[in-house]
Amino acid sequence: MAGTIFLACLDIGTTKISTMVAEARRDSLEIIAVSTVASQGVRKGVIVDIDSTLAAIKESVRRATEISGVEIKDVYVGISDSYIKTMRSTGAVVLSNGVVTVRDINDCLENAQTIYVPLDKEILHVIPLGYNVDGETEIYNPHGMKGTCFEANVEIVTAATNSIHNLLKCCEMAGLSVAELVYTPIVSSMAVLREDELELGVFLIDIGGGTSDVAFFKNNRFYGATVLDIAGNQFTNDLAVGLGVSSAEAEKIKKAYGMPAFPEDYEDESILIGVSGRGEKKVAKSFITKIIIDRSEELIGIISDEMRKLAGVETGHLRVVITGGVSQMKGFEAHVQSLLNIPVRIGVPEGKDVIDKVQNPVFSTLMGLLYYAHKNTYEMSSADNLTGDARGMKRWFRGLMGKFFRLN
Q: What is the distance between the alpha carbons of residues 94 and 237, in angstroms, rounded to a whole number?
């Protein structure tokens, strides 16, 4: 593929819907438009009102089109909700010719998918973790190796059929064609995780408005994830109920005060807040902090349990990167580190192509989608110039260095 093309990505979240357009060449990306509108019709990552979601998608795309001057048709779209599950599986074949071929790899990965999947779910991704040849394990490029028994170890991601259908339907009704539908933690990792973290072991915790994703990466591979339906909106709701204010006012309070490094600093401080329909009242800052800390301790406690399940070992030697809107809350990074007792940092999109506007945790998924779209577009186009076995190798091994996943 020569010259310049345009890539577009769409992040449909619970609190916002964002569109990004970039001018792409083989070795570079230039972001030319980013638009964000308030999300409508989405609850905990699930579309519950197609008409409202459709209107928000159209507005976000319209703004991006207006800024970029590019007609948006094909989009890469992220998906994450509490119905998404990941599971480990193994596929095996006998090597009829005594040498691993691309067909053997294909057959092995197909066999790994012969697991029970509920009728209301479908396989979204099949992600190779490594291969075994005659008992030799953790082989990452088995092509051409001699042997008799060949196995593939994979991580399978499933999603609810209705969730997929509704996302695709909204995009289609908006005049968009979905190039690929991608599980968001995988692409977010491409934007915020660093090479040493991916190699040594890291949890990516993306806490948005409606859901929290906990994903585990090690040896440059994705080892599963879980989606929790406790997220930023719960903090807002707790404040709204506890303080008797509107959700909009609670959101402002959450962003303004958060969790100070030294909560005792708030002991004798009060603020005036607007109480719904009753003017103003004085509230102790320490009371606000307690509401936020109580919810965060519940959330991080659940996340800690999920981390142990995903890693299968104690997590003290691993690292944590938190991203998403909640990661910006005052004092949250330090609070998470104190609860987990392991190194924690806030993940923001990184790389030479990142512009100031998207250097923010709320854009991790959107930027990751763009990185994936760019990688996928040019590496797959390279495969189209090859023939036979070489093309198959390019397609199957384009991401075995850590960012590979097959989409069905």
A: 56
* pTM, 2 dp: 0.90
Give Cα separations from 132 to 43, 66, 137, 142, 149 (angstroms): 42, 51, 4, 8, 8
Q: Strand, helix or coil at 350?
A: coil
The 10 Å Cβ neighbour count of residue 294 is: 13
Q: Residue 296 in 3-state DSSP?
A: helix
Around 33, how many Cα atoms within 13 Å sit in the side-chain half-sphere? 24
Q: What is the distance between the alpha carbons of residues 180 and 140, in angstroms, rounded to a whole number? A: 25
Yes or no: say if 99 and 67 are a contact pair by the CB < 8 Å rule.
no
Question: Looking up tokens 């990792």, which residue turns up?
Answer: 189
All residues at 6 or more sequence positions from 265 whose CB lies less than 8 Å from its CB, including other chains? none
Token pair for 289: 């902090």
Beta bridge partners of 180: 76
- Collapsing DSSP to helix, strand or coil, 72 comes out as coil
Measured CA to CA, the distance from residue 10 to residue 366 in angstroms comes to 7
Q: What's the number of CA atoms in the CB half-sphere (13 Å) around residue 298?
A: 13
CB 183 within 8 A of CB 124: yes
5-12 β-sheet, strand order: 28-38, 16-25, 5-12, 74-79, 177-183
Are the CB atoms for 177 and 73 separated by under 8 Å? yes
Give me the average pLDDT of each 10-residue run along the chain (408 residues): 86 97 93 96 95 98 98 96 94 93 92 92 93 91 93 95 96 96 95 94 96 95 94 94 91 86 66 74 88 94 95 83 94 93 94 89 96 86 46 40 37
Is residue 154 within 8 A of residue 181, CB to CB? The reply is no
